[in-house]
Amino acid sequence: MSEHWEIMTFDAESRRRVEHKTEEGKKEKYFLFYDGETVSGRVILTLKHPNKRLEHQGIKVEFIGQIELYYDRGNHHEFVSLVKDLARPGEFTQSQTFDFEFTHVEKPYESYTGQNVKLRYFLRATVSRRLNDVVKEMDIVVHTLSTYPELNSSIKMEVGIEDCLHIEFEYNKSKYHLKDVIVGKIYFLLVRIKIKHMEIDIIKRETTGTGPNVYHENDTIAKYEIMDGAPVRGESIPIRLFLAGYELTPTMRDINKKFSVRYYLNLVLIDEEERRYFKQQEVVLWRKGDIVRKSMSHQAAIASQRFEGTSSHTEAKTPSQTAENNSRQ
């Protein structure tokens, strides 16, 4: 098909674009949307040869949200699928523009490109033809905003090896937004082994599949050195770990029963004989709404306000989170 055509959103000039990692590991910019926002735009079909006729069996545009597991290529799990017919079967002799609007679209999950799974949202325009359909796609990125109450319990634990090592560590919160700072301290109650190095790792664990086919992929996102040298009994080591510099996503639990993404703080001690001692603790990460800028669309402003303003005293939890918290108590 020699004709040129494209999909674009109505508010392309004012809508914010964000970087998102592609499957190849590159970063590209996409239009940003939130849950409940209208997705609207136009399909532009430009005929390169005005005198040539273009016969078709109809034109449609779809809004699709889908999950693809890399071990099951070609089998796409669609959790959002909306369609609008733009033109009935016929023919074109000149360029055409078709407007479309998907009103207040539910976008329940955040866009995600992982090591074994991809969750994407995209617009797909199709010109149906007798021999082969002509298809054009445009990806968008969806961010899921959350709010948590100010009451955010700290993590406090004692760990050790009997008669060798006894330490107490504390993190100021158990839930952190993606630009937050982890503040904590480590207190040495008993030290009878020669520790030469100590660090905190941020570990991302991506879980895909179900039942016997569950696969875990651990990825160390950050290594933060706490101490180099041997501590003494009674010593206290402060921790300040800034999250903004790392590539993090919100915690995702049981997304469409296909995958999960969870984060852990891993406290690692290494002694002079290169033995490693570690203690792992899960933390919840969440995305905080940015300050609403004038350049953002009115709908984006409403979406941000809905998450930031009206829910200040309620904690955004999935049913699995609620059950997990109850079980901990």
Verbal overview:
With 329 residues, the protein is mainly beta. 6% of the residues lie in helices and 53% in strands. It contains two helices and 22 strands. The chain has helices at 298-308, 319-328; strands at residues 4-9, 17-21, 27-33, 39-46, 54-56, 59-69, 77-87, 90-92, 96-102, 112-113, 117-127, 134-142, 155-161, 165-171, 175-177, 181-191, 195-208, 215-228, 236-242, 252-255, 259-271, 276-286. The strands form five sheets. Strands 2, 3, 6, 7, 10, 11 and 12 form a seven-stranded mixed sheet that branches. Strand 17 (195-208) and strand 18 (215-228) form a beta hairpin. The longest helix has 11 residues, at 298-308. The protein is elongated. The termini are far apart. 21% of the residues are buried. Mean pLDDT is 83; it is low at 292-296 and 306-329.
What is the terminal-to-terminal distance?
62 Å
Task: Provide the β-strand percentage band.
Answer: over 45%
Query: What is the global morphology?
Result: elongated
Average pLDDT: 83
Q: Helical residue percent?
A: under 10%
Spans where pLDDT lies below 50 across 5 or more residues: 292-296, 306-329
- Rg, Cα atoms, Å: 25 Å
Task: Encode the helix/strand succession as letters.
Answer: EEEEEEEEEEEEEEEEEEEEEEHH
Alpha-beta classification: mainly beta
Work out the helix count: 2
Largest sheet: 7 strands, mixed
InterPro entries: Arrestin-like_C, Vps26-related
GO biological process, one term: intracellular protein transport
Protein name: VPS26, retromer complex component B
Keywords: Protein transport, Transport
